[in-house]
Amino acid sequence: WPGMYRSLRAEARKGHMLPMAIELDGQFCGQLTVGNIVRGALRSAWIGYWVSKDVNGMGVATAAVALGLDHCFGPVGLHRVEATVRPENAASRAVLSNVGFREEGLLRRYLDVHGAFRDHLLVAMTVEEVPGSVSDRLVRSGRASWA
Question: Is 120 within the bounds of a domain?
Answer without folding.
Answer: yes
